[in-house]
Write a structure and sequence with these properties.
Length: about 260
């Protein structure tokens, strides 16, 4: 690691206070160009520790930047991984308070719920499908703490991959009931289609993003626990939303899930 423990704690506190006070900041690698991957995930871990100390619960995990559309949109080349806490979970069809966010965007995703733990290295799509209880549509609300969503990969990892809110809903299907490569989806904003795609846009198969998460955790001596909810990453580019917008995601054969922004 390149950064001192105290610097990691300070950066975690800085990013979390930006989140809690709805304030943006420049990317942290501007001030710490030597920051390495271990530092980036250590900052993310310190943010999580601070949330857990205040009574938050981890309710899921996420992979981000898993589609070429997202990678192109953000000018990066690799997936990233983060956590989801209970505060981020929004009931299906309910309202998200835009005043609690900086500059939210929505992403259409496939969510996985596991019936068995997954541990890398060597985790693959087959292992993920065998360990999956069901899959369902999900919308992730991302809200980078970085000004104008301008960041590099290490800065965005430290910022818990822009995680802010999410909703899952629609029809839960066994993985054998749907071909997640060819399944089509449409994201609508205020009744108009704004992004469309198919599951294969996520690393060739959304389960590959879950395998990548298990392999990432395996390198750190961790696993994805049984029962976990995992957001596998935006199928399309992210779409900006503001107060007054309604967003709905329809996934072929899996129904729809929606959110309103107040
Ligand atoms: O979930 C995601 O794909 C977001 C990852 C972080 C990058 C971003 O803020 O777009
Ligand atoms: Mg996402």
């Amino acid at each position: 690691m390149a950064l001192a423990k105290q610097t990691i704690e300070q950066l975690a506190q800085h990013l979390e206070s930006c989140q809690l006070q709805m304030r943006d900041t420049h990317k942290i690698t501007d001030d710490h160009p030597d920051m390495d991957w271990d530092d980036a995930y250590a900052i993310q871990d310190a943010i999580l520790a601070s949330k857990l100390a205040r009574g938050a619960r981890v309710v899921g995990l996420k992979a981000g930047l898993t589609s070429h559309a997202k990678m192109r949109q953000m000018g990066v080349t690799d997936p990233v991984f983060g956590f989801l806490v209970d505060d981020y979970s929004v009931p299906e069809g309910s309202e998200v308070a835009t005043r609690e966010l900086i500059h939210p965007k929505v992403e259409p995703e496939i969510a996985f719920v596991l019936k068995a733990a997954l541990k890398g290295p060597g985790c693959h799509i087959g292992a993920v499908l065998a360990a999956t209880d069901f899959v369902m549509p999900g919308i992730e609300v991302i809200d980078s703490r970085y000004r104008d969503f301008k960041f590099d990969l290490k800065s965005v990892v430290a910022d818990n991959t822009s995680a802010a809110r999410f909703v899952v809903g629609g029809r839960a299907l066994r993985p054998s009931e749907v071909d997640l490569r060819t399944v089509g989806l449409v994201l609508e904003k205020n009744g108009q289609p704004v992004a469309l795609g198919a599951g294969a846009a996520v690393l060739g198969h959304p389960a590959a993003a879950v395998a990548a998460l298990a392999n990432h955790l395996g390198r750190r001596g961790q696993e994805i626990p049984a029962g976990s909810l995992i957001l596998s990453g935006g199928v399309t580019e992210a779409v900006a939303v503001t107060a007054g917008d309604s967003v709905s995601l329809r996934v072929q054969g899996m129904g729809s899930v929606s959110l309103r922004f107040a």
